[in-house]
Amino acid sequence: MTEVSAQKLIESGAHYGHQTRRWNPKMAKYIHSHVDGVHIFDLIKTKKALEEALKVISKVASEKKNILILGTKKQAKEKVAEIAQRTQVFYVNERWLGGTLSNFSQIKKSLNKLNTMRDKLAAGEYKKFTKKERLLIEREIARLERFFGGLYGMEKTPDLIIIIDLKREQGAIKEARTAGVETVGIVDTNCDPDGVTYPIPMNDDATRALDYVLDLIAEAITEGKNNSKKLEAKPETPQKQVKVAKGKNIKTSPRKVKEKKSKVSKK
Questions:
Q1: How far apart are CA 119 and CA 132, in angstroms?
Q2: β partners of residue 185
Q3: Residues 72, 135, 140, 120: is their CA dihedral positive or negative?
């Protein structure tokens, strides 16, 4: 199991919330106190919630289900792409496009278009076009890569979405709830924790805190996938030999029957 360090959460500033005047009352159960007008998270509860979320992430990964990481804020977008590519899961780090879950068939068309254009570019089919036309095509590929590159290869809606900053990604949360997709979300003091299935109460602005939690998420995904591989590689238990029940008739060769008869006659 991926270990969570309370000391590292403190060092990274995960315990700092927003100003007391900018808070959601539903977050009261996760708040320990306030200092100089800033809410302080109860890190015991943060640690427990984070550990629970990591267990869920690891389990989903072990079951070979689709995981998507969503983080478009500047503090997290590069790290999101890095760990998603490292663990081979889907991600969105530019902008959540409305309909990604509710109208996935349209998203699939854009992914197919990107795939086709990539193949044609690699095959040199665009060489016959004018310089201006090729430039427009390259720009279109770059645009599609920017918004759909992290979803490349996704054939169906994800089974779990990990969300950085609930306040920023309200559209994704609404779509996930409508589609019945489970979510793990980092929830700051100005957010509604009821919006996600597994809330992680902590600072969603500190780069170090986000980096630490995203690294833990990467470990949980890798751990889950490794467990899945171990189960696949485990040899099957050999079947036990079936013993013959007492009193069951066993066929005897004619030769053995004659030998038994001769022994009886001699007696």
A1: 20
A2: 163, 199
A3: negative
Q: Which two tokens stand for residue 97?
A: 């496009």
Q: pLDDT averaged over the chain?
A: 87
What are the start-end ranges of the E strands in the chain? 16-19, 31-35, 38-41, 67-70, 90-92, 160-164, 182-187, 198-201
In this structure, the chain runs to a length of 267
CA 162 distance to own-chain centroid? 7
Residue range 47-105, pLDDT digits in tens: 999 999 999 999 999 999 999 999 999 999 999 999 999 999 999 999 999 899 999 99
Any idea of the CA torsion for 119, 121, 122, 126, to the nearest 10 degrees?
120
Single-letter residue type at 71: G
Give residue-wise pLDDT tens across range 5-16.
Answer: 999 999 999 999
Number of C-beta neighbours around residue 13 at 10 A = 15
Helices (H), 98-206: 104-123, 131-148, 170-179
Are 170 and 192 contacting, i.e. CB atoms less than 8 angstroms apart?
Answer: no
